[in-house]
């Protein structure tokens, strides 16, 4: 189970339906670019492609053809390939185990997608606003990667 500090401040405003977007407290461009750079170089066994479910400018991460572990439900429509995508505003949608999802929501770092269900396992991770929040985002992404691949991602200390 991932351990997260409580997020500072109020939760950002998000859209109540599809498309599910973050409307306030967006990531500064520098932080969003650092997040994308880290993800493109730190998630072995993944492929970057256009998202199957998100807006065209999102950066999406898919498994490289290896099936997810038994019981893992990734993003629709296939449920076995795309496990995370970064929106242009720096927020992410990703898949998590129910235990990690509960930790994410309880600590104030994200929320369930409006269509969330046992077969639509999509949660929003709010866009990081600072370098410290970027480190928290990496922890959450590493948990999503572990859920999708069954492999642990070693994070470097900041």
Can you give a write-up of this model?
The chain is built from 3 helices and 6 strands, in the order αββββαββα. By secondary structure, it is an alpha+beta fold. It has a 6-stranded antiparallel sheet, covered by helices on one side. The chain is globular and about 40 Å long.
List the main descriptive attributes of the protein structure presented here.
Aspartate Aminotransferase, domain 1; alpha+beta; 6-stranded antiparallel sheet
Q: What's the end-to-end separation, in Å?
A: 21 Å
The CATH topology is what? Aspartate Aminotransferase, domain 1
Q: Could you name the CATH class? A: Alpha Beta
Q: Tell me the count of domains.
A: 1
Structural class: alpha+beta
Report the principal-axis shape.
globular
- What's the arrangement of strands in the largest beta sheet? 1-2-3-4-6-5
Average per-residue pLDDT, rounded, comes to: 95
Order of helices and strands, N to C? Answer: HEEEEHEEH
Give a summary of the structure in a few sentences.
This protein is an alpha+beta fold and 158 residues long.
Helices and strands, with pairings:
Elements: H1 29-42, E1 46-49, E2 59-63, E3 82-86, E4 92-94, H2 98-106, E5 110-112, E6 123-125, H3 131-149
Antiparallel strand pairs: 1-2, 2-3, 3-4, 4-6, 5-6
